[in-house]
Amino acid sequence: MSTALDQLNNAEDVAIVRTSNRKWRARKKQFMPWLFISPYLALFLLFTLFPLLFTVYLSFHAWNPVAGLANMEFVGFNNYAQELTSPWFWKAVYNTVWLAVTTGIPQHVIAIPIAYLLVTAFKGTLRHFYTATMFVPFITSTVAVSLIFYSIYSGNTGILNQWLLALSGVPVIGALFAWVPDAMPIRWLSKSDLIKPSIAFVVIWKYTGFNIVIYSAGFLTVSKDLYDAAKVDGCNAWQQFWHVALPMIRPFIFFALTLTIIGNLQLFEEPFVLTSGDSGGVAQSGLTISYYLYLIGWEWLEMGAAAAVSLLLFIIIAAATSLHFYFNGKKGLEGNR
Amino acid sequence: MRRTLPNISLHVVMIIGVLITIFPFVWVAIMGTHSRSDIFSSPPPFYFGDNLLVNYEKLLDVMPFWTVLFNSLFVSVMGTAGAVFFCSMCAYGFFAYDFRGKNIVFGVMIASMMVPPILTIIPSFLTIKFLGILDTHFALWFPGIANAFGIFLIRQYMVNSITRDLLDAAKVDGASDFRIYWSVVLPLIKPALATLAIVMFIGLWNNFLAPLILISTPDKYVLTLALRSVQSVANSPWGAIMLGTFLSMVPLLLAFMFFSKQMMAGLTAGAVKG
Amino acid sequence: MKKILLAAAASVALLTAPAMAGDIRFDGFPDFNSHLDKLIPSYAAKHPDTKITYQMNDHGDHHKKLTTNLATGSGAGDVVVVDVSFIGSFINAGGFENLSGSEYGADALEAGFVGYAWNQGKGSDGNQYGIPIDIGPGVMYYRRDVLESVGGGIDGVITDWDSYIEYGKKLKEKKVFLIADAADVAKTIVLTTVKNGDGYYFDKDGNSLITSERFVKAFEIAKRIRDEGLDGQIGAWTNEWYDGFKKGTVATQLSGAWLLGHLQNWMAPDTKGKWGVSNLPNGIFGSWGGSFLAIPKQAKNKKEAWEFIKYLTSTEEAQVAGLKNIGAFPVLKATYTDAAFDEPLEFLAGQKARQLFAQVAQKVPAVAPRKGDLIAEDVVLNGALAEVLNDGKDIMAALKDAEALVKRRVK
Questions:
Q1: How many domains does chain B have?
Q2: What letters, b where the CB count within 10 A reaches 16 and e where it falls short, cover A104-120?
Q3: Which site among A55, A141, A300, A316 would you substitute to test the B interface, given the most B Cβ atoms closer than 10 Å to its Cβ?
Q4: CATH number of the domain encompassing residue B200
Q5: Residue B118 C-alpha, separation from nearest chain A C-alpha, in angstroms
Q6: How far away is chain B from the Cα of C411, in angstroms, using its nearest Cα?
Q7: Does residue A14 carry a pLDDT above 50?
Q8: ipTM of the complex
């Protein structure tokens, strides 16, 4: 990379001498953006491209990693064929999409209004305090998260079950929870139909704060003149939010959604720790695609098949992101300019 | 935003939110003051215990805690500083210019975020080894200083807060490209830089996989690795680990406070675009 | 591409600085560090030229890192620990030194070791690649006070699985669970009743055994326990699990010898004198866990590494120290006559339990690991079993599905 840049530089030097000022400017104009994005290009070529090509190469081979690099065996499309007909792969696809949707939407539906309130309705220390606490889940280490939620979800003595029981004893709203005593103990992490919702809650809990921060940055770009103008036009608080603020932060919504799509489809840690890394929990209800490829690659030592799954996941994410870009990209990328 | 005190219901919503989000943090703090037996009683205690000093001594006994904390700090600060500079630079390239191949490069960049990281461990190790930077902190922060996430974020912020007119005006004044980026654009996107700094700092601080594979000298361990390395399913000094976990979250919270102040400062400075 | 990779790997190997002549690094997981901390000083006194350092990682992380090191041919320590669950797939892949070779001569040590564990460290070519360092002879832990409250002796409970379940029914009236998780029973039966010459999941010729009688019966017994409401449905290593041990709401636990140390040190220290150990029900013998030491081919100081491995595994001094330091049960038979084995253990109400552990260790049948064991374990003993017990799936249907899944991957 550096040599390529040097050559370009040399070319420029020569150009300065030989060509007229105007031509040089045109050249420079072409060259300038590449100079600005060159750090990314350099690091991409250095650190991202090779792992990517390696994975593609690997996906056509059978490879037990502990046997070393020299022991790959070419198998053509076998890995792909094997995974595309594997029941666990499709279970994982279903779980991944289920979790992506049910955790993705609430993250934003909660984060946007809260970020708006934080930016517009609170000031000073109080705003600071609220923002910081909302962000705490995102910085809590996974080990702590898994320990804590294990305790919360545990069947016999978990806090969640104890609260539900307590609620069922409260007058009036108790009727809503009348089913609770009969259902006890509810085993949140070891019944196949409860695993996904239990995981989903943790994911929403953890990542909403992250989105709040992104959206806060977004709402900060909205000028107060706009709100003032809206007030003069007779907009109430809701209309200010809906018609003034929301359209203005479109690029941020677009950005945050992109991240959510990519991140949620790669979901790994939360399902992994909440099912104790135990082949995806009962009936693989918590098995996501990333989890599955981890299992194949690092537990079963079939790196080739894992590479194939990883590329299939890549294709799924790329498809979802492309749809998102297709429908929302114009306004999302260009904003209101 | 000249507003009177927000009404009570808002506070109620916020306080419920705070309770839901903060209690694991408090819980970790609480567990850091208990012995292992107490932590694993059922239900676990929700009050402070008296084992804090014992846990602290144990923590210092099982790992050079302050050394690894400093290592984490070093890696996170370097990576964050680098990212703020290089990501904004690249973002400016994507934002301010139209050039042939831009969409392709941008597309590839977004696509590079989609590669599941779990499988690239082995080739990444090979790359780092090839470059001869195994077992260095450099290998932990350098590869991420111009990353797709940051570039994308800052570009989006620029779209919202910087007008073409402004760039054109600067050009008419005869400012060089780099000067426009440095003196005109950067000051206007401080909130975005602060946001990126928050996310980068946390990402680097909590990074575990890369240190596990790349770092082999215990003195170069970072916090995540050190805390994980003393755990086993059966026999770990959990009180000390919880205390260490709590202490490791404190710098993150401080960093967050610092950067979020910078971010919110954008508000009082007045928004830039109407 | 492969060639480029190899060239890259080779060129970097030249760049890395050579280690000092006698420096060796030990890669493992906790609690080996507590053990090494005590052993290294005395070893170093006798071997002044050897400097030993160690690198510990969490159990799963250690194996992930080791996998990466073996895959890329660099970064591994001189001595590495391999858990028994990984030993089968690791030693046959060619990344470790053949310790049966003349420069090591491991075969001469065989007679001193517990047979089944020694065999687990053998590759399919008959050579030794891993040397066992500790084992987990399987026993049943039981609460003496709970047993007394029901009446009868422990021998009446462990006669066979029927008597074990009968005991559970009596316990149910007292609101005490027979066992934390019925799945443990099924796993125990599956792993301990392997026919001679078979593997755990595949026979000699690689045919699947997953739908065989052994699995069906094991699943049936576990399901009976679950359906009768005799188990607590409590996962291992959770707060509820420890709680059951503390409060005596769980009467038995099938596990390895090493559980004793955990029970008495931190899980339930206040229950001293209330526990006992016995053979597993139905006269079976099995093991829970175990670790092996190996030398990666990429190691820099193999000679010193081997000396250290020999010291750790085949000297009574180090093996007994392991028992005392971290409760790692010795694999060296000569230690079983050590005075430590005659000690009555207060936690177990004065029972001389280590003798029982030693007897069990020598009766555990050897089962050779086979390709596909890791997959089959996940699919059958984690996947299918949980579906049968928690979701009520039909046993034969679950086993057939599991077998189909395993067969697809293991050819």
A1: 1
A2: bebbbebbbebbbbbbb
A3: A141
A4: 1.10.3720.10
A5: 7
A6: 24
A7: no
A8: 0.87
